[in-house]
Design brief:
4-stranded antiparallel beta sheet; 1 helix; mainly beta; Deoxyuridine 5'-Triphosphate Nucleotidohydrolase, Chain A; 146 residues
Length: 146
């Protein structure tokens, strides 16, 4: 199955382009363009060395890597980050070390995040005086139980 064509500009030609580790994976690996030492609780913005052009009607979402989170407590602050179809700058990720005691060294070329490409709808927002009824109604956080 073929998906959307995503044009890639390699701002750092020594880094790999995004790739899928396994057939059926939703996220393609993004790589760190620089070394960063994160002390406990510290965050940093890290470049990936690439820019993309998405077709109209698509967006890219930058997700954390589960292995970094589980093994080292390293995740993304604004996950998922959104890359709009019109953006042409470098994809950068904001990483944070949530480990309370250990620093984490992210090395240039390490897999730092995943890029998920999705088709998106543009909504037509319509202001109304009252919303239609629903089964859930106004039940919010925790309203469906445990």
């Amino acid at each position: 199955m073929s998906g959307a064509e995503v044009l890639i500009q390699r701002l750092d030609p020594e880094l790999p382009i995004p790739s899928y580790a396994h057939p059926g994976d939703a996220g393609a690996d993004l790589y760190a363009a620089e070394d960063v030492k994160l002390m406990p609780g510290e965050r940093a913005v890290v470049g990936t060395g690439l820019a993309i052009a998405l077709p109209e009607g698509y967006a890219a979402f930058v997700h954390p890597r589960s292995g970094l989170a589980a093994k080292h407590g390293v995740t993304l602050v604004n996950a998922p980050g959104t890359v709009d179809a019109g953006y042409r700058g470098e994809i950068r990720v904001t990483v944070i070390n949530t480990d309370r005691g250990e620093p984490f060294l992210l090395r240039r070329g390490d897999r730092v995040a995943q890029l998920v490409i999705q088709q998106v709808e543009r909504a037509a927002f319509v202001a109304v005086e009252r919303l239609p009824e629903s089964v859930r109604g106004t039940g919010g956080f925790g309203s469906t139980g445990r």
